[in-house]
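Ticket #4471: structure export looks truncated?
Reporter: QA, pipeline team
Priority: medium

Steps to reproduce: submit the single chain below to the structure queue and open the exported record.
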Amino acid sequence: MSTLPACPQCQSEYVYEDGSNLVCPECAHEWNPNEVATAETDKVVRDSVGNILQDGDTVTVIKDLKVKGSSLVIKVGTKAKNIRLVDGDHDIDCKLDGIGAMSLKSEFVKKV
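Actual output as written to the record:
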């Protein structure tokens, strides 16, 4: 059984080595497995205007947001202090005054 990773484009398991690169015979994709590993760990999260967000930043909401499963609305200008970046669709975890713990999408916030 092969210990090589599947092709990142077509998920084919028939990958072979060609020097330092890996090659997929089904879609002809070539890649260096060392470069792919570092690219996945360097995820950059940006706010609505393109500023890079980091853990501990303070952001403001740029649009009224309805809270799913509730009648609450997060108003424009609400500040979220000391954010934490996470993986997933909603990539910011934070606490909002009067609401509590919340997950937000970075496209709806702006760095202060």
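Status: closed, not a bug. The export was complete when the record was re-opened. Leaving a note from the reviewer for reference: The domain at 1-37 is CATH 2.20.25.10 (N-terminal domain of TfIIb).
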